[in-house]
Design goal:
CATH class of the largest domain: Alpha Beta
Catalytic activity: uridine(1498) in 16S rRNA + S-adenosyl-L-methionine = N(3)-methyluridine(1498) in 16S rRNA + S-adenosyl-L-homocysteine + H(+)
CATH architecture of the largest domain: 3-Layer(aba) Sandwich
Helix content: 25-40%
Keywords: Cytoplasm, Methyltransferase, rRNA processing, S-adenosyl-L-methionine, Transferase
Radius of gyration: 20 Å
CATH topology of the largest domain: Alpha/beta knot
Family: Belongs to the RNA methyltransferase RsmE family.
Number of strands: 11
CATH superfamily of the largest domain: SPOUT methyltransferase, trefoil knot domain
Structural class: alpha/beta
Number of helices: 7
Function: Specifically methylates the N3 position of the uracil ring of uridine 1498 (m3U1498) in 16S rRNA. Acts on the fully assembled 30S ribosomal subunit.
Organism: Marivirga lumbricoides
Amino acid sequence: MILFYQPLLPEIQYLDLEESKHCVKVLRKQSGDIIHIVDGKGSFYEAEITVASHKKCEFIVKSKQQDTSHSFKRHIAISPTKNLDRMEWFVEKAVELGVDEISFLNCYHSERKVLKLDRLEKKAISAMKQSVKANLPKLHEIENFSPFVKNQPAEIKCIAFVDFHNPVHFKDKLKAEKETLILIGPEGDFSDEEVKEAESYGFEKVSLGSSRLRTETAGIAAVHLMNLM
């Protein structure tokens, strides 16, 4: 099923320029054809095209269905990599697997201090449609580590840290229906001071396995484990 994106549904019942071009010029949809749309806020819509214009494809909504695939929030906070392509890959795959929020952390060992969200948001929208999901994750601007960890309300709060003597695996801390937040550090990992600070605010140090993972790989492993619950 091919999905289109219109975040202002049901108030606005037409596709934007890019989506209209794809619908009418590429897929050659015509008036009377049925299309499927997501609003990025948890709803699928079935709609009928009324004006098949490649500049402004208009439609009327025929039915709406709410996505009820999960009832708890999955939040990952990750330090962006120096290579932006790797972070784009992470966002794309995390959205495909399923995640509700992605925050970006500026840590002591972070190599990238500035991050523009525009391209990442486009990657997220594309991945949402491709994986037939109705929820577009919230992408947050990069934030310094200390203020971020102070006021996090998640019921399960973990910090992934490369410590081969730590027997606590992230999968063993997860519980169904519990809002979860996990922190993923930069290539140089979190500093010992950052780990201690996170623990002082209720985060628990966890392992993602015996392998030393790259930042984006660790992020995907964590998202996958959250979705297994």
